[in-house]
Each structure stands twice: as C-alpha cells, then as structure tokens.
Design brief:
mainly alpha
Length: 90
C-alpha cells in the first residue's frame, strides 16, 4: 500500500504542530499540576476563579433563569416536576 504525498505532508504537519503547540502546553500543564499540589495554591486558585466568575454570574444569571423558566413552562412534564420540587422546598 502506497502512502501518498498528501498523507506524508499531513503527518509531518501534525508532528510539527505537536512539537510547536502541544509539547510546551503539556509542559506548562505538568508545571501547573506540581504547583497546585499544595492546599494553599488550590485555595488561591478558587478565590481567583470566584473573583473572576462572580461578576459574570451576576450579569448573566437572571437571563439564564428566565430562559430556563420559559423552557420549563413549555413542557408539561418539566412543569410538573418543577412544581413538585418547589412544593418540597417550601
């Protein structure tokens, strides 16, 4: 079975992309894994993620909630399940 020039070029290009992009990224992730072995670094990461995500959640949560309630109101089974959950919570 003969390997075409296109297949060779694709193989070489993918190997080159691996060495250019994936290898440094894998090294960076392995460094990050070693960095986050301590509890304090995990705590700092959670605090940073929370500080970044909280404003996004404040702005987008009402529209997501409204869309979810609209989808629930369109479905009879989802409405009954939602009402049961609401009844159990109140």
């Amino acid at each position: 079975m003969e390997i075409t020039a296109t297949a060779w070029a694709a193989g070489m290009a993918s190997a080159l992309l691996y060495f250019v992009l994936a290898w440094p990224l894998a090294k960076l992730f392995s460094f990050g894994r070693g960095l986050f072995q301590s509890f304090q670094m995990k705590l700092v990461a959670v605090m940073i993620f929370g500080a970044v995500i909280a404003p996004l959640a404040e702005t987008h949560a009402p529209s997501i909630r409204d869309n979810a309630l609209d989808l629930i109101s369109r479905s009879e089974t989802a409405t009954s399940v939602y009402n049961q959950i609401l009844f159990m919570l109140t």
